[in-house]
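User: I've been trying to design a sequence by hand for this structure and keep getting stuck. Would you show me what you'd pick, starting by listing the structure so we're on the same page?

Assistant: Good idea, let's start from the same input. This is the structure you sent:
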């Protein structure tokens, strides 16, 4: 159980309390591993992460029992909030992280910045 309840943690974040400014006490404790993986993936889409980051987050999601379809559903879920351009940019990076073959028209940057991203076969 969290040592600090959710209301107190929210208060600390609101005032930028020194006890949270270095990330201490911010480890999620209530979210399931699969929910946490999906939230992090959604955040990555929102901030425009690079392919290696998608590889790591997709791997974590799959390891937590999230299906490839659920990973892709994240794109649909966040589109109204983060905007279609962010989703279109993220789509090929997620596809590559899922081990899918590049398609004609995919963003060349997505294919070229894979770097050391770990990929998993779809499924």
């Amino acid at each position: 159980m969290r040592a600090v309840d959710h209301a107190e943690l929210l208060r600390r974040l609101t005032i930028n309390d020194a006890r949270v400014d270095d990330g201490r006490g911010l480890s999620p404790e209530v979210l399931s591993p699969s929910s946490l993986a999906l939230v992090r993936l959604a955040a990555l889409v929102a901030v425009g992460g690079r392919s290696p980051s998608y590889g790591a987050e997709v791997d974590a999601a799959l390891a937590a029992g999230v299906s490839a379809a659920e990973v892709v559903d994240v794109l649909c879920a966040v589109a109204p909030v983060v905007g279609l351009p962010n989703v279109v940019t993220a789509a090929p990076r997620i596809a590559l992280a899922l081990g899918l073959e590049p398609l004609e028209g995919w963003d060349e940057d997505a294919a070229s910045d894979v770097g050391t991203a770990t990929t998993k076969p779809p499924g």
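That's my pick for every position. To get oriented when you compare it with your attempt: Helices lie at 6-14, 33-47, 51-63, 68-82, 84-97, 108-112. DSSP finds six helices and no strands in the chain.
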